Amino acid sequence: MKLIRLQILILLGLFCNTELSAQQKPQYTQYILNNYILNPALSGIENYVDIKISHRHQWVGLTDAPVTSYITIQGPIGKQDYNTNATTLFEVPGTNPRGKEYWENYSSSPAHHGVGLQIVDDKAGQFVSTSVFGTYAYHLPIGKRANLSAGIGIGASSIRLNTNNLLFEHNSQQVDPAVFGNGTTGKTKIDMNAGLWLYASNYFIGFSAMQLLPQRIDFSDDQTRKNAGKMAPHIFATAGYRFLLSEDFNVLPSVMFKSISPIPMQIDLNMKLAYKDKAWVGASYRNKYGFAGMAGFNAMNLFTLSYSYDYSVTQINTVSSGTHELILGFILGNKYNSDTCPKNVW
Hints:
There is one protein chain. The protein is mainly β. It is built from 2 helices and 17 strands.
């Protein structure tokens, strides 16, 4: 119990002290399957409306551990081609989007727009954060074989603190005096994200930033705490390249760098092996944290299901049985398989 209360106080300190800063956005393992959750420049990158629903339970077994759920919806406006790219999951009828012939005949997509919506709910300790963002991106052909997209996300984030559970000792009635009042205290702030995404049939390079607008968050009583907490910008840089192993198998290694000042940079190394984009397995390594494995499939080019499990090599593993993450995806208006895709009823 003391360990749990200590974690709560640490979380509180991260928001109420200008000297401290840490990751304030949710952590994801399967972002490689939905890069849109980290970069608004992917709005409308596919030839269909892409819906992803995810639930993540981090550090199972630890009381008040982070739990994150989200839904994302994004699709193109005015896109007329059938091209796939390094992250696309679905094949054009009569072709193998992972075969040598497709790579040789690939051309950049015509200029088009994309829009999307992101809704994320994140719980960590006594903090609950809910964010809603609308996104827009413009995709521009760069030469004959690549596209560059730029995107922006504008929305609001609400951060709430449940002060009723901030007790000094188990069964104590004394609430932390640094927090005013009882019940739930909340702050809502306007925020903005932005990103760039360079992509072709076999590679992608992305850069994005979250929490771009300076924000001050303070849940403390002015009599006990004079300084307000800060919302720190989160910077992401990622790249991946898809290698053809055979006409049926391809492998996609990728890397992501995450920077949140002043903590050390986080580096993720990922590897995804796919069979005709019908099924895939993958692995990930996160420096100074641990490993993850994932697997998934798509059915009839209409929906996808994927699961990942994280194993930490840090001391958190002594009180936790790992992290589980599930993503369910739906495809609307799929031009790759229009005969079996309902157009109006979902």
